[in-house]
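REQUEST ID: PR-0412
SUBMITTED BY: lab tech R.K.
PRIORITY: routine
TASK: structure prediction, single protein chain
INPUT:
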Amino acid sequence: MVDVRACDAAVISSRVRYLVFGDVHGNLAALDAVLADADARGYDAVAFLGDAVGYAPDAGAVVRRLIDLDPAVAVAGNHDVDLLALHDDVPLEAALDADAREVLRRQAATLDDEAIAWLRARPRHWVGSAFEAHHGAPGDPWRYLTDLATADASLDALCTPLAVVGHTHVPCALLFVDRPDGGRTGRVVPLEGDPAPYDVPAHARGFFNPGSVGQPRDGDPRAAYGLLEVGPPHRLQVVRVPYDVAVPRAAIRAAGYPDRFGARLEVGR
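STATUS: complete
OUTPUT:
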């Protein structure tokens, strides 16, 4: 696993439109639906936020899609890191339950060398000139940014005004504006459903989570992804895509994975 120094910035030009997504978790049907929808809408570059593997059995095909996409930005998720640990027979980093570990163990034994090499090459974070990418919190990659309090605690670790993040499987934006008295005011921007694009206010800083492609946890079973148009102003949009949830559920059963990993796809939990 490679890494970069926290605030070494890659230069990107303005007004690039990024397809932003993560938390695919081996759900090929959801990923293919997202890619087809995004192709129809149009984008310039791809930012992948981690967790290609785990939960559903098409991890190899998912990584193959990612290799073919050749993302401009692609960071590691906790499931990706623990799969590599199991592959290498070294201690795991993330606190995953026994069922999730067993799924990763099986996937680590079946992924081909190219897939393993691609996962191994993912950094823990990426910093550009206009935004940055993390799976979880900056500086603490397996910490969940679930609300204003957790986001506020991580805000000073940002190198740029905006970070795109995953890990929670719930779409939202957590934004802050500094006040003259030295404090800051935070706002949760809900991005459930199919919201219109949202322009980040001038001087605001914070986090954009596009939700999960392969296992949403906001009560909406549709796959979720984001579009980020690099500003100023940064323009954010979450897109929801219906797909046949019965396909990954059947694959999970056929693979002998725990049925709960398939059942929760039907309710978005």
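NOTES: Residues 15 and 230 are 5 Å apart (CA to CA).
REVIEWED BY: pending
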